[in-house]
Amino acid sequence: MRRTLLLLLATVALSACATVRSEHVLTGAPGPAYAGEVRVAMEGSPLPVAYDEVAIVTAMGTHYYAELPTVLSALQGEAASLGCNAVIRVRYDRGAQSASATGVAVRTR
Questions:
Q1: 79-94 pLDDT tens trace
Q2: Phi, psi of 87, rounded to the nearest 5 degrees
Q3: What pTM does this model have?
Q4: 11 assigned to some structural domain
Q5: Into how many domains does the chain fold?
Q6: Which of 31, 50, 64 is nearest to 108 (CA)?
Q7: Could you give the 3-state DSSP secondary structure of residue 41?
Q8: Could you give the CA distance from residue 39 to residue 54 in angstroms, rounded to a whole number?
Q9: Between 74 and which of 8, 59, 83, 102 could a Cys-Cys bridge form, CB atoms 3.0 to 4.6 Å apart?
Q10: Residue 50 is part of which domain span?
Q11: Edge to edge, what strands does the sheet with 98-108 contain?
């Protein structure tokens, strides 16, 4: 019983440490939040012909949030909150217990 309780407490403590968060640094003028799908173009992919740069966006995930879809979703959410419909030049880095993605949030014309 005691071992089960200790295992349960350890699991709860570790899951409390697992997070995903995002942030941005403005490089242009943000707009009203965008409600549509935010496209992602990974580093090296073709870029939209015309766009306005709004911010550098970053998303970081730890433990079970350190997966590409989860981190990219947080990146897209951060861009959408700034009125952007795409994130370009996205770079994804994965470590043993964390992952991050950084890109440029833009509004395509």
A1: 999 999 999 999 999 9
A2: -125, 120
A3: 0.82
A4: no
A5: 1
A6: 50
A7: strand
A8: 15
A9: 59
A10: 19-108
A11: 20-26, 51-62, 98-108, 86-94, 39-42
